[in-house]
Design a protein that fits this description.
Structural class: alpha/beta
CATH superfamily of the largest domain: P-loop containing nucleotide triphosphate hydrolases
Order of helices and strands: HEHHEHHHEHEHEHHHHHHHHH
Oligomer: single chain
Largest sheet: 5 strands, parallel
Number of helices: 17
Distance between the termini: 52 Å
CATH class of the largest domain: Alpha Beta
Radius of gyration: 23 Å
Strand content: 5-15%
CATH architecture of the largest domain: 3-Layer(aba) Sandwich
Number of domains: 3
């Protein structure tokens, strides 16, 4: 994966290329960017530039190096990513146990999300993490000499999913790096990485992709008509992964929309209506039966939908992309109920619910509590 294959981020590409060309490569870097903006593909392209660029003008060696990157099998390129126990790996899962799956996943979805990766592994109700066993494997891999005599590169995807034991082990490696070793940590949530690790990394922030970049990529890579590509790019909100789902009519948000509409309608009816409370409890039971990653993704969808309603309510329609698939849901009538008096409280309750679910709280209790609070907040004027 070369820099020219990466969508957008022209200034970051130039910066990273120049750092390699000038042989000023920081040993620890933290790439921060939202889902679908291409942080992982950029990290791989950067690694390819480092490992293949050192070969100079030797055409045969360069070609062999690039071929290894095409299959993500370069011996000096290492990956760490969140894993879970599965039918094939029943205890102490490590990244190396899932390497064939990881390569297949990246081949199919280079811009894929953490949710996509868990779905690929069929994790069901489990939550992945990076464990101390992974950190031990990192130590073992980097203690060996580089196969091709140059750099060794370790890409840690979703570094915020490291548990404390793994974080402490990695911290020691960052404090005392071996020669010609490069760590590239990737995260969507910078604040979730411990400060001692962040302070030892050079941080690069990736912005969301522009609509024009997504539009041009869809036209060039997916043969989408310009008008349709423009509409998809607007709805994708800087997320190329979502744009691909939309252009293939595979929008994961569609069931979320139905759940959201059912939820807010029941919350509206519940004020002074005891029978509607039962509907909220049934709704909570339904969502609680899903996997925790699906629950979290749905709650993030709710946050964004409430934000869209607020923007619509305050007449900033140019920023609104939400289009209800359910013809019976009138977004214009719903929007006025989301305003400056309740939006902060709604966001707080949703954030708290995500926090508790992520930490294995009882989903049924968390969602029921959230639903009852929404009945009060949605009527707040």
């Amino acid at each position: 994966m070369l820099f020219k294959d990466i969508i957008g981020h022209s200034q970051l590409k130039e910066y990273l290329y120049q750092s390699v060309n000038a042989k000023r490569i920081p040993h620890a870097q933290l790439f921060v960017g939202a889902e679908g903006c291409g942080v992982l593909p950029m990290a791989i392209a950067y690694a390819q530039e480092i490992l293949c660029g050192i070969l100079g003008g030797n055409a045969d060696l360069n070609q062999a190096c690039h071929l290894k990157f095409n299959t993500l099998s370069h011996p000096d390129l290492h990956f760490v990513y969140p894993t879970v126990t599965t039918e094939g790996v029943k205890t102490k899962p490590k990244s190396i146990d899932f390497l064939p799956d990881w390569r297949n996943f990246l081949k199919q979805k280079p811009y894929g999300s953490l949710f996509d990766w868990y779905e690929f592994l069929d994790v069901k109700n489990k939550q992945g993490e990076i464990r101390v066993d992974d950190a031990q494997e990192v130590l073992k891999s980097l203690s060996l000499k580089a196969y091709e005599g140059g750099y060794k590169i370790m890409i840690v995807w979703m570094a915020d999913k490291m548990n404390m034991a793994a974080s402490n082990k990695l911290l020691k490696l960052l404090e005392e790096p071996t020669d010609k070793t490069v760590f590239i940590l990737i995260t969507e949530n910078e604040e979730d990485i411990i400060q001692t690790i962040r302070s030892r990394c050079q941080v690069l922030h990736f912005s969301a992709l522009s609509e024009i970049d997504i539009q041009e990529a869809l036209i060039a890579n997916e043969n989408i008509e310009p008008i349709k590509a423009q509409k998809i790019a607007h709805s994708a909100q800087g997320n190329y992964n979502k744009a691909l789902q939309l252009c293939k009519n595979k929008n994961d948000d569609l069931p979320f929309e139905a759940w959201f509409i059912t939820w807010v309608r029941a919350a509206f009816r519940a004020k002074g209506n005891a029978s509607a409370i039962q509907d909220l409890i049934l709704w909570s039971d339904q969502i609680a039966s899903l996997g925790r990653e699906t629950q979290k993704k749905f709650l993030h969808f709710c946050v964004e939908t409430f934000r869209q309603a607020l923007l619509f309510n305050y007449e900033t329609q140019k920023l609104v992309y939400f289009e209800a698939a359910d013809a019976g849901f009138n977004f214009e009538k719903f929007a006025p109920f989301v305003n400056g008096n309740n939006i902060n409280d709604i966001f707080k309750e949703l954030s708290d619910a995500i926090y508790h679910i992520e930490r294995n709280g009882n989903a049924k209790i968390v969602l029921t509590d959230l639903s009852i609070k929404l009945t009060r907040l949605i009527h707040k004027k």
